[in-house]
Design brief:
The protein starts with a helix and ends with a helix. Strands 1, 2, 3, 4, 5, 6, 7, 8 and 9 form a nine-stranded antiparallel beta sheet that branches. It has a domain of 170 residues: Alpha-Beta Plaits, CATH 3.30.70.1450. The longest helix is centred in the last third of the chain and has 26 residues. It has 23 helices and nine strands. The protein has 588 residues and is an alpha+beta fold. About 3% of the residues have low confidence.
């Protein structure tokens, strides 16, 4: 190999070592490695920064915004609440979680799906008394398995697709990978349902002191024609809510105290909850419930453009000594009271009937200018926005779902390329206010995008300097020139490296090696391309193997060995199934 080739190999190995042994963010390590190769003269500017214009990377960015639109409008939470329900056993809980997550991850990028579902699954695990440690690894693995079924299911597929296009190869269609990914996913799901209860740790929920002792009184209404009408309290998922207590129901002038789990909900039932502010935010996400103020939808700004705000009532506030309804709070401040907290006291009353007192903490739904207008007002001691949360525009849920379905159909029929459809869908999510600009910026994982883009520079370093071809010769020298043996080796190499570093970086680095191997053997490179897609994603044996594994690592209270115990057999199983199917789906 030339001197540049040795420098390229050294740079890539250095990046691998840094990723495996240090706590530095992956995007910084990979970007640093590319910059070092650029400064050393190994990479020209066009090659070093080519990833920032790659179709795969841009498609991932657009899909983050599409997922944000589905999340912000309540499509995700609404579907999840209906599907999860209230199972009575651990295996039933895992089945209700794993099957729909696998299916959803085939049509939405799996990383944002796990990000959206983690808090939902954590709360759900407390309600059904199943440890989160029995659910979070299955959540991650199910998302990975589903992501292997279609072209857009995982960022790795999109990255490899972009590399294939850059190399002059034919582009993949939406369901091309399904002929391998679907059988692997079905076998992987079956493995999880059979063995996860035995192999996963049983970390019980720790009882911790509440970080916020304030209890809000909240009032919600069961929407007529909504999903909760006719369901019992238990079926609706309103029993054992984390941090929330259903105190009573007001129904047509009658009060139902001490609500039992078998009580059925009627349209326009007014539910009085007592709970913490985070739990109050969760209530807003449940489809079929809405805040109980009849004047809520008379506010000046659309609901998608409002904020949640906390405000502390001062002694000089005009409504002190009056009920909030009698003091015409909504008309005076153009804000609606969602909840009231009073110095640790439990207030089992409807919001409008509470008599305002100095020091009351109000949870408000208000227009964006409320905080600036009232920050220096003598009516409130303190006014602050609850960051990162806004009222979900459930009325646009159908629109967000329609946009997503249209994106999939336009892609599968070939009328638009994947990038064109994803960019159009992301644009429509923002224009139709399914997702605000702020939410779009917040939901995009910028570090992941930088890591993906920078990884292309490492791949170029290996390919352009001849290092990839030299490594391919070395592999063939060890395994001979049997295509199936070479394919198995490339898959295994990709899987092992993906367990040590990020999966996207692994895919980009191994891709030129695989292409060079196929050329040396004189065979079709497509089995090797699909093998990289599968192997880079199907790395279950370490928390480093996939980003979703890292996301659940801490919240699940897992140890490194927990992933090895359940993930290593799964990785080997998927390896065997994929290698058996690949030559039949894409003959050499």
């Amino acid at each position: 190999m030339s001197l540049d080739a040795w420098i390229a190999v050294g740079g890539v190995v250095g990046v691998f070592v840094m990723l495996a042994l240090t706590r530095m963010p992956p995007y910084l390590v990979i970007l640093g490695g590319v910059m070092a190769l650029y400064v050393a003269g190994v990479l020209p500017p066009a090659a070093a920064f080519s990833g920032f214009a790659n179709e795969g990377m841009m498609t991932v960015a657009a899909l983050f915004i599409v997922a944000a639109g589905l999340s912000e409008t309540g499509v995700v939470s609404g579907t999840v609440y209906r599907l999860l329900g209230t199972p009575r056993t651990g295996i039933a809980a895992q089945t209700r979680l794993v099957v729909p997550v696998t299916a959803a991850s085939a049509f939405l990028n799996n990383t944002p799906i796990v990000a959206m579902l983690m808090p939902v699954v954590n709360d759900w695990s407390k309600r059904i008394s199943v440890p989160a440690s029995q659910l979070l690894i299955p959540l991650s693995y199910a998302a990975i398995l589903g992501g292997m079924c279609t072209l857009i299911g995982t960022s790795t597929n999109l990255v490899v697709h972009g590399l294939l296009l850059d190399s002059g190869g034919p582009g993949l269609k939406f369901f091309d990978i399904t002929r391998v990914g679907l059988p692997c996913a079905l076998i992987g799901v079956a493995y999880l349902l059979v063995f996860s209860r035995r192999l996963l740790p049983n970390h019980q929920h720790a009882l911790t002191a509440l970080s916020d002792p304030r209890e809000y009184s909240l009032e919600m209404i069961v929407e007529a024609g909504g999903a909760l009408v006719g369901r019992t309290i238990e079926q609706a998922g309103l029993r054992h809510l984390p941090g929330l207590f259903l105190a009573e129901i007001h129904r047509r002038g009658h009060v139902i105290p001490a609500v039992g789990p078998e009580e059925k909900l009627d349209a326009e039932d007014q539910l009085i909850f007592v709970g913490l502010v985070d739990s109050a935010m969760d209530l807003q996400q449940i489809p079929g419930l809405r805040p109980a103020s009849e004047q809520l939808f008379k506010l000046d700004s659309p609901r998608s453009e409002r904020w949640f705000v906390e405000a502390v009532v001062s002694r000089t506030c005009p409504v002190v000594g009056q009920t909030f309804r009698g003091g015409r709070f909504r008309d005076r401040y153009n804000a609606v009271i969602i909840g009231v907290a009073r110095n640790g006291q439990r207030i089992n009353r409807r919001i409008g009937d509470i008599v305002a007192q100095p020091g009351d903490v109000l949870l408000l739904e208000a227009h964006p200018g409320f905080v600036d207008q009232q920050r220096n007002s003598s009516d409130f001691y303190l006014v602050s926005r609850i960051e990162g949360v806004s009222p979900p525009p459930h009325d646009r849920a159908w629109l967000a779902a329609t946009i997503t379905i249209a994106m999939v159909l336009l892609t599968t029929t070939g009328l638009l390329t994947l990038l064109q459809a994803a960019v159009a869908a992301a644009f429509m999510m923002i224009v139709t206010r399914c997702c605000s600009e702020e939410a779009a910026r917040r939901r995009v994982d910028w570090q992941l995008l930088i890591a993906i883009a920078a990884s292309f520079g490492l791949g170029h370093a290996l390919a352009d300097t001849g290092a990839a071809e030299a490594i391919a010769k070395g592999i063939l020298g060890q395994v001979g020139e049997r295509p199936i043996v070479a394919l198995t080796t490339v898959y295994g190499l990709t899987m092992i490296l993906s367990g040590l570093i990020t999966n996207n970086a692994t895919a980009v680095v191994v891709f030129p090696i695989a292409m060079a191997t196929a050329r040396k053997l004189g065979v079709d490179p497509m089995p090797f391309v699909i093998a990289i897609m599968m192997a880079a994603s199907a790395s279950f044996a370490t928390p480093l193997g996939y980003q979703t594994n890292l996301m659940v690592y801490g919240p699940g209270g897992y140890r490194f060995r927990d992933f090895i115990v359940i993930g290593l057999p799964l990785s080997i199983l998927i390896w065997a199934v994929a290698i058996w199917i690949l030559p039949h789906a894409w003959p050499f």
